[in-house]
Each structure stands twice: as structure tokens, then as C-alpha cells.
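G., before I forget:
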Amino acid sequence: MSPKKPNNGHQRERILSRVAADEFVGRTGALERIVKLSADREARGLLLLLAPSAGVSELLRQAYDQLFHAHTEAVPVYFSLSRKEKNPAQVARRFLYAFLQQLAAFHLREPRLVNASLTKTDLLDLSPPADYEWIERLLAIAESESAGHDEQSLVRLCLSVPERAMTKGVRSFVMLDAAQLIEASEMEISLGAEFVRALTRSRIPFVLAGLRRQVLDLVHNTLGDFDGLERLHLDRLDDDEAGRLVEYVTRREQVGLNDATRDLIVQQLDGSPLFINALVEAAREKKRPLTSFRNCQRLYVEEVMGGRIHRHFSSIMDELAPTSELRRALIRLLYETSASDTRKSTVEVWRKRLDITSAQLQRLLHGLNVHELANVNGSLVEMNSAPLVWHDYLRARYEWEVLAEPRASVLAGLLTELLKRAPQTMEQHYRREAALGLGDLLSLFDCQRVPASLLHYDRFSRLYKGLDAEEAASLLEAETDLVRLPQIVSVANTTAFHPPVQMQLEEGRSVIAHGFDAGSYSEASEVVWLAAEIDSKMEAGRGLAEMWHNRLTHLARTRSFERVRVWLISREGFTNDALEFLNEQEAYSSSRRQLEALTSRIGQGEIKQAQATDEFELAIPMGEETELIAAHTVEQIARRSKFQPEAINQIKTALIEACINATEHSLSTDRKIYQRFRLESDRLVVTVSSRGLRLPENYLETDVPGRSNGNGQEEKAQGRRGWGLRLIRTLMDEVEFERVDDGTRLRMTKYLRKP
Amino acid sequence: MAEMLTGVTVRSRVVGGAAVVYASDYLNKLSGERIERECRLQLEAGRRALVVNFRDTELVNSIGVSILMGIIDAAESVGAQLVFSDMSAQTVELFEMLGLTRFVALAKTEAEALATLSGFAAASQGSGH
């Protein structure tokens, strides 16, 4: 019941982090994991496996700052490799000095030392007295090794500093950033391998972060296995997290934004923190608000053609193809392969068209694979379809460098194309969001027996239409005609089997699931389910059902699937003539309601919980008893979730108090109270906010009891201060105040309790 | 006794020597002040037995409750008896939460409240007001 303490991250001095702790979004779980790892005496290493452009540096810097300020037992050490560094000995020496400098800063509790420029003498002067001797000796040996010519020996010496410190009782926690950059082909020494060996040998916990494909290869090739090493995948931010990041960054940079452009940015930049930051910084520099699609796309095109996004991909291209001639040929080949129907080409074609040696080609393909721009599978090279940003960059460079079109023409062409694409991008996003999660559901099929009516819309409609959910659920429970589901072993989007241009499917709305009937792994019981969600506002008619059935069965024939089961889902079910056809074909048919019943039966509600979420917004003017409008609104909303009358009254009263609070405290100039009501499966979350003065930080501690003496004088003196908050806290299950930039937000949660 | 409207919308009536004041459906600052005003008028008229009837009250806010505190104090200061009646379970719960029930008597119905106050009502009548 007690509210959370306000996050005071913004008050902490930043050392390496670039943003305040409370503005760091989207990686909370990973951050907690890293911080926890530092204190784990049993742990060895954590491999942070990044999807390309997922971003990891800020995560590690945040972890560093948190650990530094917490003054943990283990000395945090953050080391980032630079793309420009090609000399292993220099990198290793820099690691040694960075380690000792961060050790001194941590020991002296002096954050400024972490970023200071220190000489060897400074380092020694600042070293902890107990460590002076071994540090001095280590630096002396390093100097003498530098004078010699044994580079490998010097590298190993420098990288052994965590291990040497450990033997002297100094426990460190090394976080190594951008490990993918330490495998430059021209290095004779594999610095990556040396780091992996040194860290695993040191018996300290560590983090090794880098592109997932490369880190896995590096560790596997160096150690042979992943014994004792944990793995944590960092994918792109999900849409909510990315949206929050866009909001935070634009607010920080004072760049205008609205809901529509925020969503476009998230979709177009594929939720990449790197690209989001690049775009917003460009907007700030050019003083252009991100408040229209036109502005967003214009800035984006400029970024792709010459800004940070351009530099990001260009540095990868420079790495893959060091000469301008090879780069040009590579861009041509990449673009033309991407634009082809199959998006594939053979390795032999690549070798001939690039006119390079097999060894050079091998390195180039390895690079493309590591950056996930292409998948190399035996003799085939297949282009990846995502992310959009890469394809826009590739298109711009192709038109500009290969076709030699004027820059202005390329810019105009790309911009107009993007403006046309923006609504489609959003449409795809909305459809994806509204999808029923067929893949997740099918992957839970594991020989369960379910009522047959869940897979036959005609039966379901006849038996359960018009009944409420609980009544239908109890009748379904009693159904005796059951169907045994197969055990599904693999689920993939249909687009993975068929080129998207032909199928024109949105991701996730049609899937192909391979499995076995009765869980028996034999040829005879092998079965492929082809499921598709049909877009229809009403019951889907025969024409639509036939088209989809034929489309899927055609695909099954082309892929030589022997035993198949077609399952069509239409939100509102199917018309009688459509059902007649589907029954003739022995295809299954379901409505959204059937799918939900099936999900709750076999998935225990674990699929798409977000679907159970319903959100409402309301803005009311302050005063004139408008809080009653809010109270009546929340009553209607709470009733939808079958809250008991007593609970509804409590919610209404709490909301009224919150509205009064906002009116009294905010001095709001727009005189409005913004409310959001989110219904989840087990709770109602009410958020009340207003623009204006923020509540004082100690507001939550204000809690004035009722009259404490018989004559009411004390009460009269104190007025009714604190009663509203006291009521809210008593009536609701969770209450949380958040001071935001331009006001205060109160979040109240009431859990649903069965009578 | 005839019910009447006083001020803007507050209804009240006098039963014997007791005054009954009816709260509206939403007890907030405005309606609370109307009740307070009516109670003070009744006290000034010499009534020493007051009932505030909450039969129509569905929602209560903290400002309204704080005004009720003022009414309790006003009654106490002149030695009058005050009873709240016909409150819904939610309103009772709210008053309990805020400690109001420690300072005022509650009755399930108006009749019960008037019965409780009959002695004071007689005193009010006897005082000549």
C-alpha cells in the first residue's frame, strides 16, 4: 500500500552516463542484472548479445555510475573500444591505465577522476596506499615490455590487470563495451580472444558486450564452450519502450513532438536507441520540431544521407570494403540483391561481381553476417529485410554513387517516397498490434484436448452466441466433443516460406506451424498447420474464405507439405456459405472470441495479456464539479471489469480527491485535469495529471489525522490538509506520485477482487 | 411539519423541537457550506437538536467532510446535539476513515435519530426560541 519513493536518480552525479538515471528507459531488467552480477561471488561472465543498432554503451555506463555511487565491494571498470584503434598493444595499454585510473577514482570516491587525463605519475600518486607497490611494479613491467618487441607479451600483461588485482585482494567488475571492434582483420593478435581469456581466467564477474553473432563466435572459438557464462540478449526496444525513449530524448533536447510523430519515429527507426538519439539530436541542431510527418521525414532523409545515421552505416561499409572501388561494387550488389524477388544470390556470383579473392570475400561476408545485413548459408547469400533504415541508406548510396544521380534528386526522391510510405508504415504497425498472436498460441499446442466448438465457428455460434463469457466458459467446460491438438515444434511467419510480395501478408497474421499429432514423432503423424487471420469487419464471406484457403493450400503444395490443416480466423466469424465451403475442405474456422477462449484454456492467459488491456482518456476542465463527470466515467469503466459496487465507490471517491488535489495545488494555466483509465485483467489503473506547479517532494509524508482532541481546535487550525491524500491511500491499493517536468502525475491502482 | 427549501437548495424541516437538514447527492464544498449555513441558522433560532439526513448522498469528498467538522464544532459550542442519519455503508466507512464518527452520533434512520434527540428537542422547545 505504501507508495514508491520518488526516483531520485536525477540527483545523482553523472560520471560516465550521458543521461540521468530516471531518463534511461527500456533496459531496466538488463541494468538490474548487471548490477546484481557485480556482487555475485559465484558468477563468472555475462555475455551481452546485441542485435545490430540495439545499443549497449549507455546501459553499461549507467551500470558503472550506479555501482560507483553505491560503493560496492567490487571496483567497477568500464572499458570501451574505439573503432579507430587498430593496434592491439595500444588498446591493451589503454585498458591497463583505464583500469588503474578507475580503481583510484573508486578508492578516493572521486567521480571526476574517472574522466581526468592522468599521467603515470598521477596514477601512482593517486593509487590506494595498500596497492601502490603492485601497481608500481606492474607499470614498470609494462614499460619494459613496451620497450621490447614482444607485442603479445605486452598485451597479455596489460589485460591481466584484473587477475593481478584480484590476487592482491582487489575485486573488480569489468564491463567491456563494443567487443565487436576488437577483431579487426589486420591485427595479428586476436585482441578479442586475449580479452576473453584474461577475463575468464581472472575469477571475477565481468560483462562482455557486443554484436551477438560475433561475441558468440569469439567465445566459442576461444573457449570451446560457454561453460559458466551467462547470456543476455538485447534486442531492439519494444514499441512502448522506444516510444518512451523518444519522449524522453525530445523533452531533454527541447524538441517538439506529438503522439503521431512519436509512433512514426519508433516504427521507422525500428526502436533503435542509436537512431532515435541521432534523429532527435539532428532536430535540435537544426531547430526543427518533430511535429509533422514532413519534418520527421526530411530530417530522417538528411540523417540517412549525411548525418549520424549515414556515418554509422558508412563506417560499417568502410570496414567491410576498404577501397572506394570495392565499396561501390558492394553497394551495387547489396542493393540489387535486396531489390530482387528472392533477395538471394550465390557466393560465386558475389565473388565474380566483386572481383576479390576468396579470403577477402570470406571476410566481407563474415562482416555482413555479423552486422546482420545478410545471412550467409552455405553457397547462398540472402539479404535481410530489416531494418528499414539500412535499406533507405542503401538506396540513397546506390542512386548517388552507382547511378551517379545528383544529390538533390536522390534527396527529393527519397523524401517523397518516405512521405508516401509513412501512412503505410503506421498502418502495418496498427495491424500488427491488432493481430491475435497466432504464432504464440500455436507454439503452445502440446497435445491438449480442447472443445471441438473452439475450432468450428458454426458450432460455437450455435451454442454460445449471446451468452456472456462466464456462462460460455462453464458450458465449454462441460463439452464432451473434444479435439486433440498436435504438438507444435516450430512456428514461423508465412512470409518466411513465401515471398512477401506474392502473399501480401502482415507479419504475424499468418503462420505455418510444424508438428506431430498425438506427440508421436513419426512420418505418419507429421502435420503442418497453416493458420491465417482474415481481415473482415463482419462475418467473412465465402469469397474471402475460399481465397485464403486456396492461397494456403497452394503454398502447402509448393512446399510439399503432405498432411496439412488449414485454420482460418476472422474476428467476427464466418457466414454460412463460407462455413459450408470450409467444412467441405475440412478446414477449421474460429472467431476472435473462440481464439480468446482457446488461449485462456491452453495458455493460462499468458498470451497477449495486453489484449486484455483497455485504455480510456478523459480531460476535464477544473472546477464546476466536473470531478463528478470523471467519477461517473470511471464508474462505467470499472463496471466493465465487474468491480463490486463498494470498490467502485472507493475508486470514485479516490478519483474525486485526486481531481480536487490537482485543482488546488497545480495553479494550472490550462485549467485541465487529464485522466487515463487502464483496465487490465486484474486491475484498474487510474492516472491523474495536470500541468502546472509540482507537488513538493515531501508531499507524500503529509498525513494529518482527524481531530486529536475533543474541542476540534487543532483540527480547525490544521484545516483538512492531507485528508484527500489519506483517503486516496486508504481507498486504493497502490498509490504513486510522480513529479514530471510540467506538473505532477498521480497513479492509483485498484485490484479486482472476486465477491 | 412541512419540509422547506432554504438558501439555494438545502431542504430542512422542523420536527418537534429538532431540525432535520437534508444533504444533497454530492457532499462537496458548495453543498457542505449550504448544510453548514442551514445548521447555523437553526442553532441561532434556538434549536438544540439537529439531524443531518444523508439519504440522498451518494458521493462525499474531503472538503465536504471538513465542513461537517465545522458543523459538529458549532453544535458542540452551544451545547446542541447532532445526529447523522440515513448514511450509506460507503459514507459511514468514509466518515470512519477520517475519524468523524468519534465526534458525532449516527442513526440508521431519521426516526431513530429523532427518537435519540427527543429529550433535547423538548429542551429546545422549552427554551422559548
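Residues 407-434 of chain A form the longest helix (28 residues). Residues 1-10, 605-612, 703-719 of chain A have pLDDT under 50 and may be disordered.

More on Monday.
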